[in-house]
């Protein structure tokens, strides 16, 4: 089959790539994300034209944050872009003359890991992307799960703490408020305020003016006790959520991606501990693998391209 194009629309940049059937990137492009929706559409169309370069392309997959309908066509809602019920697929197909498929960015990343990365060789997998927020993807029986309306697998909005911290979704106690990069930063600041093992965090904060994800990440890699304590708190919440997900979905593997996953085994250890602590019927329930994502920054474009290829095959 011909190559496919994957486009990943992020908050600050649009990444695009031509991807072959084995998930390998043939060529790629990156441009800043325009703030105007019309200019954004123009930028995506221009990128598709540049990447195509006269070559036969099977289809184009576009990944974006937000709720996408089950037909992989309309963006119901996008948090970073002023899209509400946006018929993005229809617009792009009219302007490019090719087949276009639109999907959620976490779905695209999860599918890439399932097909070509850390999720290989299993049929059922859950991916949690731990960045500023928490994204999710579910693969069940070798198929990506989207739900009846296409807006499923919003795992960052699992209710983890009833009456807990307010979430941007309008609810309280969501996983995203306890298991995200933003949560890690909050925990690190709380530990810095408490003194003791947080003394170095407090000193770095005073020197730099504020803590950020990069500073906390560096301290984690340096095995700073305060930063490790914050990471273990975050890992506990992710492990507790994973135990609940396991009771419902019974995956063979959990894959963790996003910037926080760069901590590797330092993150996975508390996740496994909390998972076992909260797993129903512990000792009688088969235990899944817990691994770190492999494709990192390329997962969005690779997954979007392959989902477009799958759509073409399913509709042949």
Automatic annotation (TrEMBL):
Organism of origin: Agromyces agglutinans
Keyword Transferase belongs to the record: yes
Top-level taxon in the UniProt lineage: Bacteria
A Pfam family annotated for this UniProt entry: ROK
Enzyme kind, highest EC tier: transferase
Keywords: ATP-binding, Kinase, Nucleotide-binding, Transferase
GO molecular function, one term: ATP binding
Name assigned to this protein: Glucokinase
Transmembrane segments: none
GO cellular component, one term: cytoplasm
Entry annotated with the keyword Repeat: no
Gene3D superfamilies for the chain: 3.30.420.40
E.C. numbers: 2.7.1.2
Family classification: Belongs to the ROK (NagC/XylR) family.
GO biological process: glycolytic process
PANTHER family, sorted: GLUCOKINASE, ROK (REPRESSOR, ORF, KINASE) FAMILY
């Amino acid at each position: 089959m011909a190559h496919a194009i994957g486009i990943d629309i992020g908050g600050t940049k649009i990444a695009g790539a031509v991807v072959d059937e084995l998930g390998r990137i043939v060529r790629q492009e990156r441009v800043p994300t325009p703030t105007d929706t019309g200019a954004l559409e123009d930028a995506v169309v221009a990128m598709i034209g540049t990447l195509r370069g006269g070559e036969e392309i099977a289809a184009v997959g576009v990944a974006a944050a937000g709720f996408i309908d089950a037909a992989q066509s309309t963006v119901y809602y996008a948090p970073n872009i002023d899209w509400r019920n946006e018929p993005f697929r229809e617009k792009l197909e009219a302007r490019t003359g090719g087949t276009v498929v639109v999907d959620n960015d976490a779905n695209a990343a999860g599918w890439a890991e399932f097909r070509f990365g850390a999720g290989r060789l299993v049929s059922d997998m859950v991916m949690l992307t731990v960045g500023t927020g928490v994204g999710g993807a579910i693969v069940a029986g070798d198929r990506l799960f989207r739900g009846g309306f296409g807006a499923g697998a919003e795992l960052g909005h699992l209710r983890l703490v009833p009456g807990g911290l307010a979430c941007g979704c309008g609810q309280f106690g969501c996983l995203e408020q306890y298991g995200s990069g933003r949560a890690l930063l909050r925990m690190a600041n709380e530990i810095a305020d408490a003194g003791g093992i947080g003394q170095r965090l407090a000193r770095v904060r005073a020197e730099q003016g504020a803590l950020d994800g990069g500073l906390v990440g560096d301290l984690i890699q340096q095995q700073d006790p305060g930063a490790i304590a914050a990471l273990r708190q975050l890992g506990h919440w992710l492990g507790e959520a994973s135990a609940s997900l396991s009771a419902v979905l019974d995956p063979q593997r959990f894959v963790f991606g996003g910037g926080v996953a760069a901590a590797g085994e330092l993150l996975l250890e508390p996740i496994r501990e909390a998972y076992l602590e909260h797993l129903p019927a512990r000792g009688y329930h088969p235990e899944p693998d817990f691994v770190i994502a492999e494709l990192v920054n390329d997962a969005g474009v690779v997954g979007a391209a392959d989902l477009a290829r799958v759509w073409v095959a399913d509709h042949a």
